[in-house]
Design brief:
- By secondary structure, the chain is mostly beta strands.
- Helix content is about 15%, strand content about 55%.
- The protein has one domain.
- The termini are far apart.
- The N terminus is likely disordered.
Length: about 180
């Protein structure tokens, strides 16, 4: 019973966190760079295998999604994209970080492969905020710095307390590539 109270107190304290810190390099990049493409509308569905629990463990994360409302001064024909991401790392329902590779397939038939960091933070009310920062290593926008933010409301926070854990989330996604 005491362990359960400690876990509930820890989760409650984390729910009180106010803001996700933006990595300094992303802030500096956006201040000194030009936006090459910005997609303000998007959705993502993600699955965790095994599910995320309160205790950190090795997890494979697979995400698929769509981006829309894209504006690109250098490629005005771009209006949207689909994307996939496969990530392996040590995660819990509370936090985790690793590296990842994501592939974006633009409506023009072009694609972009992004490699970079992947960070998970739990926010108030159980919302999971995923932030991908990286570089386009292949394809359209090669060399650009990418910041993708995904806000995934947890629909079953109680699952974090079970041995099976939280196995899926879905929510909104945005995408920005800076030159």
């Amino acid at each position: 019973m005491r362990l359960r109270s400690l876990i509930v107190a820890a989760v409650g304290g984390l729910f009180g966190a106010a803001l996700l810190p933006v990595p300094a390099s992303a802030s500096e990049a956006s201040a000194a760079s030009v936006v090459d493409v910005n997609c303000s509308l998007g959705t993502q569905v993600g699955t965790y295998s095994p599910g995320m629990t309160l205790l950190p463990r090795q997890i494979d994360f697979r995400a698929t999604g769509t981006l829309g409302g894209c504006v690109s001064p250098s490629h005005p024909e771009i209006t949207g994209a689909t994307f996939t991401a496969l990530v392996s790392g040590t995660f819990s329902c509370l936090a985790g970080s690793t590296t990842n590779t994501s592939t974006y397939h633009w409506n023009t038939g072009d694609s972009s492969t992004v490699e970079g960091g992947f960070e998970v933070n739990l926010k108030p009310g159980g919302t999971t905020v995923l932030v991908l920062t990286g570089t386009v290593v292949d394809g359209l926008f090669q060399g650009a710095t990418v910041v993708q933010t995904k806000v995934l409301p947890a629909t079953d926070l109680a699952a974090c307390l079970t041995p099976q854990g939280l196995t899926s989330v879905s929510g909104t996604a945005t995408f920005t590539a800076l030159l």
